[in-house]
Design brief:
InterPro entries: Multihaem_cyt_sf. Keywords: Membrane, Transmembrane, Transmembrane helix. The chain is an all-alpha fold. It folds into two domains: about 35 residues; about 55 residues, Flavocytochrome C3, Chain A, domain 2. Helices cover about 55% and strands about 0% of the residues. It contains five helices and no strands. The longest helix is centred in the first third of the chain and has 26 residues. The radius of gyration is 22 Å and the shape is elongated. Bound molecules: heme C (HEC) (2 copies). One heme C binds next to helix 2, helix 3, helix 4 and helix 5.
Length: about 90
């Protein structure tokens, strides 16, 4: 292989590693750290028990809806999977 091609491949590999590392860092810094966890109170106790996140989440909007006892704040992000963002532990 020509010396120039080798250099090019080396550069591409470096770029790939840097990009992958950057994405990893980005994910590790994701905002979940600041997002409120699922409260550990009486109201939410049973949702800590339900093993499947998907099953547990079916109940959230009973109360967390516009007319419920605890509406979501204005500008709340898309809310499809509550427990991905509001962690249980
Ligand atoms: C029976 C009604 C009810 C259900 C069902 C319910 N919540 Fe709540 N939730 C509340 C009330 C009331 C509050 C405010 C008082 C409190 O923190 O307990 C609240 C507060 C919260 C908060 C804010 C905590 C904070 O620190 O500010 C989060 C996050 C939350 N709920 C997530 C969920 C998720 C996720 C589910 C589904 C697994 C869920 N809730 C199901 C009534 C409910
Ligand atoms: C994409 C991530 C994400 C998803 C999915 C999500 N939330 Fe949130 N939620 C947030 C962020 C970010 C905030 C505002 C910062 C915070 O946690 O106080 C918030 C705020 C809240 C609050 C108010 C917390 C407070 O301290 O006043 C409640 C209640 C809540 N979310 C419930 C829910 C419920 C119920 C679902 C599912 C129907 C849900 N969220 C899905 C990210 C998310």
């Amino acid at each position: 292989m020509k010396e120039r091609n080798k250099k090019k491949i080396l550069l591409l590999n470096c770029a790939f590693i840097l990009t992958a590392g950057g994405i990893l860092l980005f994910l590790l810094n994701a905002p979940e750290e600041t997002t409120a966890h699922l409260p550990k109170d009486e109201i939410h106790a049973k949702f800590h028990e339900i093993a499947s996140k998907k099953e547990a989440e079916k109940n959230c909007t009973d109360c967390h809806n516009e007319n419920g006892v605890a509406p979501l704040p204005d500008g709340h992000p898309p809310k499809y999977r509550c427990l991905f963002c509001h962690k249980r532990d």
